[in-house]
Each structure stands twice: as structure tokens, then as C-alpha cells.
Design goal:
Helix content of chain A: 25-40%
Strand order of the largest sheet of chain A: 3-2-1-4-5-7-12
Largest sheet of chain A: 7 strands, parallel
Structural class of chain A: alpha/beta
Oligomer: homodimer
Distance between the termini of chain A: 26 Å
Amino acid sequence: VKKVVVTGASGFVGRSVVAALRLRGYEVHGVARGPANDVEIDAWHPTDLLDPVATRELMGTIRASHLVHLAWTTAHGRFWSDPDNLAWSRATLALAEAFVDAGGGRAVMSGTCAQYGWDATTTGVFPETGERRPQTLYGISKQSTSDLLQAWSAEVGLSFATGLLFFPYGPYENPDRLVPSVTRSLLGGRRAEVRSGARVADFIYVEDCGAALAALLDSDVAGSVNIGTGQGIPVADVANAIAAALGREDLVQVVAPGTEPPIVADVTRLLGEVGFSARYELARGVRETIEWWRSQELTGSAAGSRPARR
Amino acid sequence: VKKVVVTGASGFVGRSVVAALRLRGYEVHGVARGPANDVEIDAWHPTDLLDPVATRELMGTIRASHLVHLAWTTAHGRFWSDPDNLAWSRATLALAEAFVDAGGGRAVMSGTCAQYGWDATTTGVFPETGERRPQTLYGISKQSTSDLLQAWSAEVGLSFATGLLFFPYGPYENPDRLVPSVTRSLLGGRRAEVRSGARVADFIYVEDCGAALAALLDSDVAGSVNIGTGQGIPVADVANAIAAALGREDLVQVVAPGTEPPIVADVTRLLGEVGFSARYELARGVRETIEWWRSQELTGSAAGSRPARR
């Protein structure tokens, strides 16, 4: 049996990764400071990954063949410059060492499209071979950690890939982000003001994102792989899709159209080498997301009260 | 009093850094797994920096204002692809965190000219603004660690610089490297075959290298600073300088002239911003080195038996 450790398994993306890996027959061991009761999983391990001694002990106990590393500092807005990015980088290196020392052979970590340069000189479509010019501590930390692990893996015989996540949306997303905030405003009958409406980005439904990462893990593709749909969608269209699904076009106001270049994944590797393509159209992903938020409001749960983790 | 922690203080470059810092009035705390009895220093701490718990405890005890981090895996030949580069990267991140948490304000780490790309497309003179295309696990590890610390420092208010070392030579260098191996062969009356004789590199006497790093620490210059002389010297000239000093030109044979581009530091920052320039000419540096090796042979010490550390 293929045994996989998933860090950040109770988080926004982690939940979808866990589900996709179980569908593929993996025995899934989730690591999270706060395990989630509503995730179907083989085992939870409430380990603090910032503690390298505990991490090494955990990996020695589980002795997994596979690793998906998603845990990172993800506080909305703040994560771009959060000093804890450094702690997560060193924790990631320690985790990889402990995983390999315990016999692990295949690992995937989540990176970010922010590892590319987003300035006006880009075409807006990013192949993995493109230049990396991350502008933030978050982007630099992910890029540095990934570079290091890639070079190290070649020396120790670890099969290693980084999935560069574009813009996942869906259930359990941080409520302050675009899709949840518009959805919740409209569900509550409140106006939603949407900035940078003309900005084009690669939005991917989180279930597709999780399935893509699981497919990447199950392959032997090494290096960076973009995780997106390959389709650019203007922010305004996302807001309008939510409004249309709820019949509340009257509540959405798009301001500050935005002149930044698009941020869209080149999915040649994901399609051709990993063999994965996204299944959810925007309208369907939005409907699923709305249903989930509606269920949250109905059950009165403190939506998004758990800090989202990639 | 300015209190500085120097890691790798018993190593090849570390010894010169310690001496230069004491001249500048620092209280110097050396960290090394094996302290050196023959180094004048204020205190030795025999801490294993790969142990993050011990590192944190040490930094909390010393509470230094300054840090020079030189320790790294440096086994000759093997360090380029040594898997321990990963361990040193994460140890470096943990050290920086612990240093700042204990009140530290200014840090310098040693990088390497191998962080630049050495292929045929370069001009051979490397300004710090130049592209980084490290080709080895060692170069990638130094580059990634330095990038990360630079971005993190800006967020936590640490003043941080990386000194990119070119080609230091002198006493205590690993005996398998160019200058020691030619010197020892000629001292023993044996022939020395020198490869890549036409290769031009920026050789800097280790005392200058240590003094430059001390000057960099004592400044508030941030970012990358090349540590070299700014002068390219062909490998053949280095060998011939040793032969001339010993009157044994007959024993040196230069083979495989080499067609690689030069590797020379652009020292604009070191001169203009740090205010340092190298004092040793090649002939003098070579003479000092020969004298040291002669004293080693006379006292019968196991020359270079201690693994050199940067």
C-alpha cells in the first residue's frame, strides 16, 4: 500500500488533496496542529512541524513512501511578508530530510504562481521554464525552498516536484478572499464592491487543484509543474458568475478596472506529462462554492474560523 | 562592547575573520564542533549547529549584537554535491532566527562566487547585480539561503549582508587544493602537475578575505558584496609564483591550458561602500603561505587534518 503524509491536511487545499489521494488508494496520514473531524482520513497526527525534533520523530514513526507538503503560513494578506515564512522554509527542509531518512521516495510541495514575476514585462502566461522573479518574502521563500529541495533531491535520489498553485477557490477558502467575500455578501443581501475587475487570473476550483496535486504525486514528473486550468478569467466575470447563480446582479459593483497583466498558467506539463486537466467550469465551481457557504450559514458554523492552510 | 558570534571560527577563513574582528574591538565568541587551541579568541562554544535546539540555547546565552556565519559543509571536492548542504541551509535559517530572537541586529554570511553562472556566456567579471545561475547543490544552497535571509531581514529589521567569496588561499587551506598541493609537492622536492593553467580566477589571500568580511560586518551595507581583489590571475601564474619563491621552477608542469572564462570579482561595492581593498600581492601571499606550510612540516603537525570550514 502507498502510504502518504499530507501536511496542512485540514486546510483549504489540503482537504481536497486528502480526498483525491484516498480515491487513488493511498493510506493518508494527515498532519495538522488542529485535525479536522469532518475530513475522511486514515490517521491524524497533531504535530507542530515547526518543531524539527517532533517532525523527525513523526516521520520515523509513519515511515511513509510519499509526501505532500502544503503546510505554510497563510494568514490572509499578512502571509506575503510574514516573518514566519523563514520558519516554514527551515521546517520544510527539516521535513524533507526526515522523510528521506525514514525511507521516503516521492514528494510534492506546493509552490505559488507568485514565484514568477508579475510585472508589466510579462506576457501573462507563465511556462515553468520562465524566469523567477518573486517580489515578496512569501514568493522568495517558496522559490528558495523549492530550488534547494530540487537540487538536493537529485543527490539523494528523491523524486521531487513542486506544484505552483495559481488561484484556487472553493469551500473552506479564507472568508476574506474574493470568492468567499462576494458570495457571503450576496447571500446576506449586502452589496459587494469588486476591485481590479479587469484583472485576468487563472482561477481553479479547489477540488481540481487537489486532484491535480494528487495526480502529480502519483506521477514521476520532477521539477516545477503549474497547477491551473490554463484559462484566464477576469475578476469581474468571477463576481458576475456568483451574482448570476444567486440572481443578485444588482448587488455587484465592479470598480477600479485594473491594468495589470494576466496571471495564467501554461498547463502544457500538467496536461502532457501529468495527464491532468481541470473538470470544473467556473459556473459549476461557483455553484458548489455557494452551496457550501449556504450550508455553513445554515448550520451556524463560524465560517472560515480555522486559519486556512495550503 | 560589540559582541560577535563567529561560526566556523576554527576553519580556514574563520581564523582570519576572528583575528580581524578582534583588531576591530569585538568580543569574539567562536562556534565550532572542534575549537582550535591556537586561535586567540574570547570564548569557544563547542555547539553542533545542525542541532537547532542547541543553537537556540547558545544564541540565547550569548545574546550577541553581531553574527558572522561561515560554518558549512566544506569537504574538498565533495561539498559541491554533498547532501549536507540541505542541513546547513536549514541550520543557517534556524541560526538567524535564534540570533534575531536573542536581540541580534547585524549579520553577515559567507556566500560563494559559484552563485554566479560560470558558463561561456559570461564576461568573466561578476558584479553583484549580475544574474545568479548556480549549477551545483552547494551554489544553489548558498544562493537560496541568502535570498531567503535577505528578504526576511527586511521584514524583521535585521541588517544583513552576504559576502560572496572568490578564491581565498593561505595557511590552513585544505591540502588538496591548488596552492597547498603545489606548495607541499615543491617543499617535498616532488613534481607538481597543474591543470587548467590558463584559467583566470580572483585569488585573495585569506587574511585579506577575513579582513574584508570583518569590514563588511562593521559596515551597514546590505545585500551581496563580492569578496575578492578585483584582479584576475591565471592558475599558471599562481603555480609559478610558488615555484619562483622556492627556486623550483623545474618541478612545475602546467597541462591542459583550459578555455573557461575568467572568474573575477567586480569589487566596486567592496571598495566604494565597505571601503576595503586587499593588501596582499600574490608574491607576498604565496611567501606567507609557504612559510606556514614549512612550519607545519617542521613541527610534524598533521597539516590540514582538521576539515577546513568556511
